[in-house]
Each structure stands twice: as structure tokens, then as C-alpha cells.
Write a structure and sequence with these properties.
Length: 663
């Protein structure tokens, strides 16, 4: 027994003398560092998964080679020499051998560090513990596009949005809105700062490398309070497997939040089996979200139509097409756009009537056709499914506004802003609600915020100019209208500029602006009506010259009412046009219908007053004007309007006229 222990002791001493233990430890350190670096770099170069496996096998196979070479050779100050047997039996290091003592300490320190790192990663690799994980809120940051040509941003953004949709469908998990999350694209801020700004517990970030049909997607879930990595994985597949990858990522995130009931993820994350159709849908969705003009909507329409050509059963594309056509209709009042919206929405409803995109599209459509109760029904159904979805609250706010429920509209838009504080459209919409209730200063603040977020947005500049105009800030209004036309010459911008000239008595310049508006949007009755009013008062004009434009305005207004018979502003304008043309019985009929259900729209009341004034019913006109002023319509506007100055008395100074002289 003692002989065996002696031989074992001599063997261990010989291994130590030949530095086998030191070299084995050093090799382990170097191999571990090498594999860690490879694990980071290989996904960036889209290396197949088997490359990493081979590197691990080679690292393991290298260990016995290193041990054998260390046994046979020694590193001395004179270089590498063959290690000779120890004939003294002392197994002590030769005097010529290198001093390895400092390497012993270094190896021990590095091995201890590796152990701590492994333990830390093991602690964070499982599901997140504690209240922060169970709270369940996450922001999906825009995935970085690492494709060779850098031309797949729409795809990486679309993947991020699809994951948002899928995660939002998981009960108990709150997902930050798209616009707010996307403001942190390529941010230099650390994870805790971003999480605090988005008010979430975790961040999901990643990168996409797409080369042909090959995909490599790296995903990381980061704890929002500490910045530590909760989970990460790299997925390699073909483009046809994108929906499977999305499902895998969503389920992994849910597992990290200890969520077991995942909802109907498959229907959300696998909306079509055609990658090409999905690509077109993603591009259309992105363009529609940012569109503020009819021309901007056209690009979205083209992508949605292409998606449906590839996959006619693609419900999301049908819902997107419905929303795009309806947005185009509201911008142009072209009746064929409304009919196309009806067709697309019917198709989406037949494919999946309970999907949130279908419900929102139908809610918008029913609102636009005056079916307010049905609009509320669809949007509240959507709200039950997705109570934290910004677009649902925004759509609900718009329906409240049209219904005259301004307090509820304001609350819905404020909720939408809270859920997505970086999206310009909700600030703009809230500004419109406040302006329509006479809270002009607050309205201007919100519209200015929309412009800060989208500086070249013509619609927001035009709305701001209109608010300044109602505030009698005519110089600022003129500047805003010029900025709107400079950003994008929309018909609304030209009409607003024309209105300023009209109130200033410069009918020639006003006519030029209204003619531009008509040329850009020939199906909109409002611009024909503005032009007719201008010609009526212009020197050398009169009713005969204005009649064709009034008649065209009447025709187009009737077409608009055929789509939405409950629109009070359109019906009031129709009554005013008919009264001007001398068709008093028809005008009276329109006004009686309006007066049977008193409007809360100050603009409709003002227009009804104009109709009564043309009909010679001054007392009834004044009643409508005063009702409009009670709702916030500025008296100064009535004093400056060339059609009502005689009733309200022209102000001592006419700043409208002065502002038009400076342009």
C-alpha cells in the first residue's frame, strides 16, 4: 500500500516538475476565452451552427495533445528543450527551468474569474425571478439590419413589429408602443436608461442578417433595472421559416416572464404562409403609419395590393388596404376610395372578424359612414382584446370626437399618447379636439409637439396655422401656412392660406389659393365652395361667375352625404350652397334636419348661421352664431369675416388684412 502511495506521489511530483498542471490550466483558460469570442463573432458572419460545434470538439481534442507535449518538452531560458527524466528522485525543477510560480497565481485567478462568470450566467439564464419579471412589461427595440447591402431595414423593422403584435397577444404581458420603442434606434444610452424612459421591466433587442434566403437572427432579453442579460439565442433558418422563428422568440420571452398561458400566438405570428406577401405587407404598414398626405398613402396602397395578389387570403393585408383606402377617401373625398374601403373591410371581416386589425378597420369605416354605435361596438371589442394598444385608443378617441363626446375623446387620445409618447399623430389629433372645444392655447401646444416629432408634417403645420388664425394670431398663422405649403403643397394648406386672404379682403390672392386646392383635390366639395364664395365677392365676379362652382359643390356634397348622411358640417355646407343658388326650399329642408338634432360642432353651427343669413333670416342666423361662440368659435372671426362684419361690427384694426399685406 505504501509503495503505491509512493509511486503516485512520485508521478504527481513528476507532472508538477514537467509543468503539466500549469499548461493544462493555461490551455483551459485560452480555450474558454477563444470559444467566448467565437460565440460572439460567428453569428455576425452568419456562420452555420456546426462551426461552433467543431471548434468545441477541437478545443477538447487539443487538451491531450497539450498534456503530451508538455510532458515531453520544457520551456527554459535557452528555449524549448526535451525534458529529461529525474534521476535524483527529488522531482524538483531544474536550475535551468523557467520560473513558473507567477503563472500559477495567474491561472488560479483566471480560473476563479471564469467560475464566477459561469455562475452568474447560470443565475440569469433561467426565468427572471422577483416582482419585476412578474410585472410583465417589455419594449421591443428595432432590430439592427446587419445584411451585407444594408437594405433589409424594412424586414428587420417588420420582424420587430411582428414580435410586438405577438407579445401583446400574451395575457399578462404589456408591450411598449412601436413609435416610442423605435425612437431608441441605434441609441447610445444604456439599457436601464432606455427601460426607464419606456417604463418597462425588460428590453428585447437583436439583429437580423439576411443574405438571399438565409437568415440569422440574434435576440437578447435585457433586464431593465440591472442591464443584465436574462436570455439570448441565435436562430438560423431560411426566410420561409420566419414565422416559426417569431413564434419561438415570443414563447422564449414569455417563459422568461414566467407566463404560461400564451394566447393564440399562431394566428398572430403566422398571418400568411408567403414570405413575399409578408414583405409587401410590412412595407405597406410602415408607409401607412407615417403617411400624412394622399400621395403618401398611395405607396401603402400599392404594397397592400401586391401582398393580396400573392396571397388573396392574407387578412392583415385586407385590413390594411381598408384603412389605407379610407384614409385616402378622407383626404380626397373621392367616392371610389370609400367603395374600395368597403370591399377590403368586408373581405377582412370574412377572413377573421375578431382580429384586432379587422376590428379597428371596421370601427374607422363605421365612424366615417355615420354608424357611430357600430363603430363603438367594434372598437370596444378591440379594446377588450388589447387594452394597451395605442391604435385602439386613438381610433376610439376619433369616434368620440365625431359623436360630440369631447371629454371622452380627450381622455382616449391622452391614453394613446401615454402608451406611445413618440407618435406625432396622437398629439395632432388631441390638438384638433381641444381646438374644436375652444381651448386654443392648449391645442396649439399639442400640435407644436406633433411638429417637434415630425417637423416636415404638412398636416400638422396646416392645423397649427388654423389654430393661430382662430386665435387672431394672423402673422403666425401666415407663417405656419407657408411652412405647410413648403413642406408639402396639400389642398388643405392652400385652402387655409386662401381663407386668410379671404378674411383680409384680398379676394384675388384668395382665389388663386382656392384654385390650387381644387386642382389638387377636385372631388372635395369644400374647396369648390370656398372658391365659389371668393368669386361671389370678388370684383367683377358675382353669382353668375360663381354659379358653376356652387353647383359642383352641391353635387359633391350630396355624394359625400350618400356615404355619411350624419355629417352635420357637410349638410350645413350643402344648405348654404343651396341658399346661395336660390334653392330655398331644399336649403330649408337640410337646415330643419340639422336643427332637429342640435349639433355640438361649432363649425357646423357657424355654417348653419351662414345659410340662414343668405336666406335673409338674420335672427335665426344670429342664434346659430351665438351657439357657435358658446362652444368656442371666436367672435373676432365673425368681426373679420366680410360676410358677417355688418352683424358684428368690424374691429377698429383689421389684423387679417395687415397680415396679408406682409406676404
Amino acid at each position: 500500500m505504501s509503495n503505491r502511495l509512493a509511486r503516485l506521489n512520485r508521478a504527481l511530483l513528476e507532472l508538477r516538475r514537467r509543468h503539466v498542471f500549469r499548461m493544462a490550466g493555461g490551455y483551459m483558460v485560452v480555450a474558454w476565452v477563444f470559444l467566448q469570442v467565437a460565440d460572439i463573432l460567428l453569428p455576425a458572419f452568419m456562420a452555420p451552427d456546426w462551426v461552433m460545434s467543431i471548434l468545441v470538439v477541437l478545443a477538447v481534442m487539443g487538451m491531450p495533445v497539450v498534456v503530451v507535449l508538455t510532458w515531453l518538452y520544457d520551456l527554459t531560458p535557452q528555449g524549448i528543450e526535451r525534458t529529461l527524466p529525474d534521476h535524483t528522485g527529488s522531482a524538483t525543477a531544474s536550475g535551468r527551468s523557467w520560473n513558473w510560480r507567477w503563472i500559477d497565481y495567474l491561472i488560479i485567478a483566471v480560473l476563479a474569474t471564469i467560475l464566477l462568470v459561469v455562475l452568474a450566467r447560470e443565475d440569469s439564464s433561467g426565468p427572471a425571478q422577483g416582482s419585476e419579471a412578474r410585472t410583465g412589461s417589455v419594449a421591443v427595440l428595432p432590430f439592427a439590419d446587419l445584411s451585407p447591402q444594408g437594405d433589409q431595414r424594412y424586414f428587420s423593422d417588420g420582424l420587430s413589429e411582428a414580435l410586438m403584435d405577438g407579445l401583446a397577444n400574451i395575457p399578462g404581458l404589456q408591450v411598449a408602443a412601436r413609435t416610442s420603442s423605435f425612437t431608441f434606434r441605434e441609441t447610445k444610452q444604456d439599457a436601464p436608461s432606455v427601460a426607464r424612459a419606456l417604463n418597462v421591466d425588460a428590453l428585447l433587442e437583436g439583429s437580423v442578417r439576411k443574405s438571399g434566403e438565409q437568415l440569422r437572427i440574434s435576440v437578447r432579453l435585457i433586464d431593465g433595472s440591472s442591464g443584465r442579460r436574462l436570455w439570448n439565442e441565435t436562430f438560423a433558418a431560411t426566410a420561409d421559416d420566419i414565422f416559426v422563428l417569431q413564434d419561438s422568440i415570443a414563447r422564449a420571452v414569455a417563459t422568461s416572464f414566467e407566463i404560461r398561458h400564451l394566447g393564440d400566438l399562431e394566428s398572430v405570428l403566422t398571418p400568411t404562409h408567403s414570405q413575399a406577401a409578408y414583405d409587401q405587407y410590412l412595407q405597406g404598414r410602415g408607409q401607412l403609419r407615417q403617411a400624412s398626405t394622399a400621395e403618401g398613402i398611395d405607396g401603402a396602397l400599392a404594397h397592400f395590393k401586391q401582398a393580396l395578389e400573392i396571397d388573396p387570403d392574407f387578412m392583415l393585408a385586407s385590413a390594411g388596404l381598408c384603412q389605407a383606402h379610407w384614409m385616402k377617401y378622407t383626404a380626397t373625398l373621392e367616392s371610389e376610395q370609400a367603395q374600395a374601403a368597403f370591399s377590403a373591410c368586408n373581405r377582412a371581416e370574412s377572413q377573421n372578424p375578431d382580429h384586432i386589425e379587422t376590428l379597428v378597420a371596421l370601427g374607422q369605416l363605421y365612424r366615417g359612414t355615420g354608424e357611430i354605435d357600430r363603430s363603438f361596438e367594434k372598437l370596444r371589442q378591440a379594446l377588450d382584446i388589447a387594452p394597451n394598444d395605442e391604435q385602439v385608443h386613438a381610433a376610439l378617441g376619433e369616434t368620440h370626437r365625431v359623436a360630440g363626446q369631447m371629454e371622452e375623446a380627450e381622455q382616449s387620445f391622452r391614453t394613446a399618447i401615454r402608451l406611445d409618447p413618440a407618435y406625432w399623430r396622437n398629439y395632432w389629433a388631441l390638438g384638433r379636439v381641444l381646438a374644436e372645444t375652444g381651448r386654443l392655447e392648449e391645442a396649439a401646444d399639442f400640435v407644436r409637439r406633433a411638429i417637434e416629432l415630425e417637423p416636415e408634417n404638412a398636416a400638422a403645420w396646416s392645423t397649427l396655422g388654423g389654430i393661430y388664425f382662430y386665435q387672431s394670431e394672423f402673422i403666425q398663422a401666415a407663417d405656419a401656412f407657408r411652412q405647410s405649403i413648403g413642406s408639402h403643397p396639400t389642398p388643405q394648406a392652400y385652402a387655409n392660406a386662401g381663407t386668410q386672404y379671404f378674411y383680409g379682403g384680398d379676394f384675388t390672392r384668395a382665389r388663386a389659393m382656392f384654385e390650387q386646392a381644387v386642382s389638387l383635390s377636385p372631388a372635395d366639395f369644400r374647396y369648390h365652395g370656398f372658391l365659389a364664395e371668393c368669386i361671389l365677392l370678388e370684383d367683377g365676379g358675382g353669382l353668375d361667375a360663381a354659379r358653376p362652382h356652387f353647383e359642383r359643390a352641391v353635387e359633391l356634397a350630396r355624394e359625400t352625404l350618400a356615404i355619411n348622411a350624419e355629417d352635420p358640417l357637410t349638410r350645413a355646407a350643402l344648405a348654404a350652397y343651396l341658399a346661395t343658388l336660390g334653392e330655398l326650399a331644399d336649403a330649408q329642408q337640410q337646415l330643419e334636419r340639422l336643427e332637429a338634432d342640435p349639433s355640438t360642432d361649432m363649425r357646423a353651427l357657424h355654417t348653419m348661421g351662414m345659410a340662414r343669413l343668405v336666406m335673409g333670416q338674420t335672427d335665426r342666423a344670429l342664434a346659430h352664431f351665438h351657439a357657435a361662440m358658446e362652444l368656442g368659435y371666436p367672435q373676432r372671426m365673425l368681426q373679420s369675416d366680410p360676410r358677417t362684419r355688418a352683424l358684428f361690427g368690424q374691429p377698429a384694426e383689421n389684423p387679417v388684412a395687415e397680415s396679408t399685406q406682409t406676404q
